[in-house]
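re: ur question from the group chat, yeah i did fold both. here u go
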Amino acid sequence: MSLTNGHLSTSAVAIAAGLSESWAWKARDQGVLHEPHFEDSVVALRVYAFVSQIVWPGTRRPRSARQDLELWQSSAVEAARQAASDPRTTPETVLWVLEDSVHLVTTPGERAAFDLEQLDGRVAIRIPVGLWVAQLPDAIAALKTRRRRTSTKPAA
């Protein structure tokens, strides 16, 4: 794990996201994470781990089959990545994920309009990306103070 020049290692991204490293390696293998990693990668990884597990009602998905990202999943990850660097993002910003689209919503007016215009009985998932973005500084600061384990060899 490393944090140098604002770049994060893949391991550091996973730790800052609160996920196991296997999620980060899987995201890298599917083209979600690209070197070098920055703070937006942490939010992207959290969203990837979430949306990659969603199966919409009426959709069959065998557990043993390789699961490539669908367009809506890639769109959700990219929207989260953009929210991480958007100055309009607040802790109240949410990412609504629908089967055929994704929507970043921040203000109370946008939330009301989204509910009236888009939801209307549709299945949707609400992801708190604004809260996750707000938590980034603390997660990154915790990486700087994290110490590596030292191996202690048994006495001979």
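okk and heres the other one u asked abt
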Amino acid sequence: MAYPLWFRGIDRLAPASVSLLTLANPLVATAAGFLVLGRTLTGWQLTGFAIALTALTLSRTLRSPR
């Protein structure tokens, strides 16, 4: 079910949004592992996660106007 939803979603989104979604995939998987499976992250992994999340957020908010 995930693949049809994924491809339906990327078919309807702008290319810039799709590229940001592909960057968000590892972050969502990490968060799901942490929340659902009870996995733990080391300090360095948490730092990397925070950097990646910040970069993704900034790329979304600091986009140049169309």
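fwiw on the second one: The mean pLDDT is 82. The CA atoms of residues 52 and 58 lie 10 Å apart. idk if thats what u expected
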